[in-house]
Here is the input.
Amino acid sequence: MKTVAAFPRPFKVRVRHTRGVSLPDPQPEELDPACAIQAKGLRKAYGNVVAVKELDLSVRKGEVVGLLGPNGSGKTTTILMLMGLTEPSDGWARVLGYNPLRDPLSVKRRVGYMPDSVGFYDHLTATENLEYTAMLAGLDAASRKARIREVLTHLELSNVADKKVGTFSRGMRQRLGLAEVLVKEPGIIILDEPTSGLDPEAAREFLAIIRALKERGITILLSSHLLHQVQEVCDRVLLFYRGEKVLEGTVGDITRRVMGSTRMFMLEVAGTDPNRVLASIPGILRLSKQGEGKWTVEADRDIRADIADGVTRGGGRLLALSDSEPTLDDVYARYFEHMRTKDAERAAMNSTEEQKFVRAGERSSAEEQETKGAAPQKEDSP
Here is the structure.
């Protein structure tokens, strides 16, 4: 009889890395060459506090992905693990094919990170600051000169190349920060609140730069609280909450998941209170005041005719009424309002259970005391 060799089932290899952390390595079939960033089961704990919980992540080359969530939700810790700046507690990550834990220097050479507050030597010029960065990146003198000239031109900083950075505005410093990132020609750029503190015009210019970088095929991770800007430039968004990735997809995908079939209308009135005259209209889910006479109406269907009728019957004047698509700000607010409600319900339930436990203990103690008090006394012997 012909025997067939039995092949062992695949198993995860756990490797003790040079920093003393034993973590799994991915199977070859788990790695996708089309991805610039991959992570599976990535976890980070500081003692009993878990900052990131079993994160699975895939970012394709050339994508612009937004990282959203309140402070403390795990965004920055995720970035630090991908950069090799902090050790994961479990799971694995690959950045442009490199292991950030085992080979952090290779990752740093190929990934540009721009924090929300960029530090420079203020007594040096823009060119001198970039020269220093390029030297650290290992560029030779000829390459440094050409590369610095190129990025200064691209970011429209050539006219201030020889000015000391201490004289720069916030917008100019942000541009120089991006120039510093681009000097080493990264395959991935990570931007942490890049438009924070910029005036509207400077912010628009910075977003245009991000779009241009995407056209060059550079992968970008953008962490920001300015959701309308994220919506403008990102292909996908990831929403973090308490260390977990809770939502992922295009803005349209996430909007449908969170808002469902909700319709939104922008209303402007005078001479009446929409809270009073529209409250009885079937289908209205929410009325939100946006300013003097301006309201947002959320409904489960198209009720524009009912709104107009309600305002006029209530003695008011209808100044404007338009259909509006939910924005990422609307989705974000709705999702976290839902989560706060759930947290409050959970806290109330836990409090109720705790009170029941305490009352049960008190009853048990009282019954025990009554039992002791009712026990017959032993008579003394004559």
Observations:
- Residues 1-19 have pLDDT under 50 and may be disordered.
- The first helix runs from residue 75 to 83.
